[in-house]
Structures are given as structure tokens and as C-alpha cells.
Specification:
This protein has 350 residues and is α/β, with parallel strands linked by helices. The chain is built from ten helices and 17 strands. The strands form two sheets. Strands 1, 10, 11, 12, 13, 14, 15, 16 and 17 form a nine-stranded mixed β-sheet that branches. An eight-stranded parallel β-sheet has the order 2-9-8-7-6-5-4-3. α3 packs parallel to α4, α4 packs across α5 and α6 crosses α7.
Length: 350
């Protein structure tokens, strides 16, 4: 079961908001990390201008809870029921959708029927992550194509995913991000379209997202932090706000303890060198995972936890871990409060 330390999480939220205020940036946190209505509300109450969602289902859950400013930062193809669902969302929220190709622009305009101007689009450009995203120099062409179909182009965005490659990659990736966004803004200007929104991510690179062209940031993992971000230098161990409570269920093998969490709970991110998760406050790591077994390698000199002991496991990557559970157990550093918050957007993958 995931345990959230509420005061640590709140400190993370407030620190990100303060950073953004210093840089004159809007915060639009990515809710894919927590998928939780209560946490989204805390972020908005702290000053976030709206939220970022990863798919239509996430957007629907948060819109249904009253969130009325949502950026679906994904190049959605409105097939099946998605077109109608996007149209309904655009009638009740200020909805922005990512696009990176002309075919999707046409499909979205068709999906909106006689009201394409209800949907705002943000052109995604690639800044070196080599994921989705058009070349920055064609952003203006795509924005013009959207306007010609009656959609409302409002800006550009990108994702510097290569900033997660290692501690030394964060700042260069952020520089790549700024260069790509500047080129995309120029392309929009050349097309006669003002890029009012210039949106940047992510948690590993956000500290360097300080260029004057950027108007908003979309961090997600900062709300909980995790081992990957501590290794990158994007957060400290004291900033980690989510742990998985796991119980030692077997200890027959020397220097090893078996926990009742495996890939079903922790995902598969990691490798034998860094492990597949850690034990808070210890050097011990999850050296191996089966579906329901976690193999803790206990280093020499460290006390092995006994059978029946509950240990706090720190995820390598927090997002897929949260998505494995139906609820979060929320407490504080003193253990004086205890609430259960649903992971409301769990399982919504499209």
C-alpha cells in the first residue's frame, strides 16, 4: 500500500510554486503522477493555473471533479469514442490538446463538428528526446493549419525527456528545450500566430527551465519525488513523500529478505546495478522482483529485517507505482493523521 507523507508532499508543492513565482512562470502540474483528485486540489490551491493530463480518461476524471482548465499534453488521435469525449470535455472546460501533425489537426477539427473553436491546440515540438513532437521550424505551419480548420492554436510545448539520462544531462536538456521552444515561437510568429503558451517540462529539468521564452512548466514527479530524481540531483532524500509499505514474509536465504511486493506493485524500472527500489534510510535495495516477491539484498553490516516487519520501500519511478493501487494512505511525519484518498484516474489508459 502506498503511504503518502502529507507535510512532505505539501512542502514539495509549495517549493515548486515558489520557484515558479520567482521565475514568473505558471505551474500546470501533470496529474499522471498521482491520479488523485485531492492532490490535484492541493496543487491548484497552492497556485497552479490548471492541470496537465496524459490522456482523455484522466482529463474526464478531473473535469468531473470540477477542474476546468486542462491541458491534454499528448498528440491525441480522436478515434473511436475519443472524438465525442473530447468534444464533451471542451464544452465544460477550457481544454487544450497537443498536436504534432496535420492529420491529427484535421481529425480533431472533424471531431469537434460545428464548434471547432471550443478546442485549443498546442503544437508539440521535439527538443531532442526523439519521442513525439514535430521539428520546431514547422510549428507555425501546424498552428496555421489548426487555425484554418477553426481550432484555436495557443502555443507550443515540448518534453526534454533526455534530461533523465544522468545528473549531467539535466541542464543541457533544458538548454535544448529552450532552443527548441524559441525556434517554435519564431515559426509561429512567421505564420502570424502568437504563441501565448510556451510550455516546458519536466521534474528533472525544471530547475533549469528559466528562459524568458517559457511561460509555464508541467512537472509531475516533484509532488512525491523518487529514487530516480534523487540520483539525478533533482530532489533530496528528505523530499520523498511516497513509500510502499511492504512486509517481510520470508528470510531463509542469508543476507536476503523477501517482501510481499513485486512487479505488480513496483513496476519493472531499474536494473541489477541500482536495484528496483530501495529501503528508506538503508543501503539495502530490491535486487530482484518477481510478480509478487521482492528480493531485498541486505548489505554486510546492515541488520536484516525480521519476518513480519513492515519496511518503507522507495520506488525508482513513482508514477507507475501509484497506478498499481486503488488508494493512497495519507499520513504526516508524526503519524498523527490517517486518511485514504482514491487513485481516481487509475486504470484509465486512453
Amino acid at each position: 500500500m502506498p503511504i503518502v507523507v502529507a507535510d512532505v508532499m505539501q512542502r514539495n508543492i509549495e517549493r515548486m510554486q515558489a520557484f515558479a513565482a520567482e521565475q514568473s512562470l505558471d505551474v500546470r502540474p501533470h496529474v499522471k503522477t498521482h491520479k488523485c483528485i485531492e492532490i490535484g486540489r492541493l496543487q491548484v490551491e497552492a497556485g497552479a493555473v490548471g492541470i496537465t493530463a496524459g490522456n482523455v480518461g484522466e482529463a474526464e476524471v478531473f473535469a468531473g471533479a470540477g477542474f476546468d482548465d486542462i491541458f491534454l499534453a499528448y498528440p491525441v488521435w480522436p478515434s473511436g469514442t475519443k472524438g465525442e469525449r473530447i468534444r464533451r470535455l471542451a464544452q465544460t472546460t477550457r481544454l487544450r490538446v497537443g498536436v504534432d501533425n496535420a492529420a491529427a489537426i484535421d481529425a480533431l477539427a472533424d471531431a469537434m463538428g460545428g464548434e471547432p473553436d471550443r478546442l485549443q491546440v498546442v503544437v508539440e515540438v521535439d527538443c531532442g528526446a526523439r519521442r513525439s513532437g514535430a521539428p520546431p521550424e514547422v510549428a507555425g505551419d501546424l498552428a496555421r493549419a489548426a487555425r484554418n480548420r477553426g481550432l484555436v492554436p495557443v502555443g507550443v510545448y515540448t518534453y526534454p525527456g533526455h534530461g533523465s539520462a544522468g545528473p549531467d544531462s539535466r541542464e543541457p536538456a533544458a538548454q535544448d528545450q529552450e532552443a527548441a521552444l524559441r525556434a517554435a515561437v519564431r515559426s509561429c510568429d512567421d505564420a502570424g500566430i502568437a504563441a501565448e503558451v510556451v510550455s516546458a517540462g519536466s521534474t528533472p529539468t525544471v530547475a533549469f527551465a528559466t528562459g524568458s521564452v517559457i511561460t509555464e512548466i508541467r512537472p509531475g514527479e516533484y509532488v512525491f519525488c523518487d529514487l530516480n530524481n534523487t540520483r539525478l540531483g533533482a530532489c533530496a532524500e528528505d523530499d520523498i513523500a511516497l513509500f510502499v509499505a511492504a512486509t517481510v514474509v520470508s528470510d531463509w536465504v542469508p543476507d536476503q529478505a523477501i517482501l510481499d511486493v513485486g512487479t505488480k506493485a513496483m513496476g519493472r524500472e531499474g536494473n541489477p546495478e541500482i536495484g528496483y527500489g530501495g529501503i528508506a534510510g538503508k543501503k539495502a535495495v530490491l535486487a530482484k522482483l518477481n510478480e509478487y516477491h521482492g528480493f531485498v539484498a541486505v548489505p554486510a553490516g546492515e541488520v536484516r529485517p525480521r519476518v513480519g516487519t513492515v519496511v518503507p520501500v522507495v520506488p525508482n519511478h513513482v508514477c507507475p507505482v501509484v497506478a498499481s493501487f486503488e488508494e493512497l494512505v495519507v499520513t504526516d511525519s508524526e503519524g498523527t493523521t490517517l486518511q485514504r484518498w482514491p487513485v481516481a484516474a487509475r486504470g484509465l489508459l486512453s
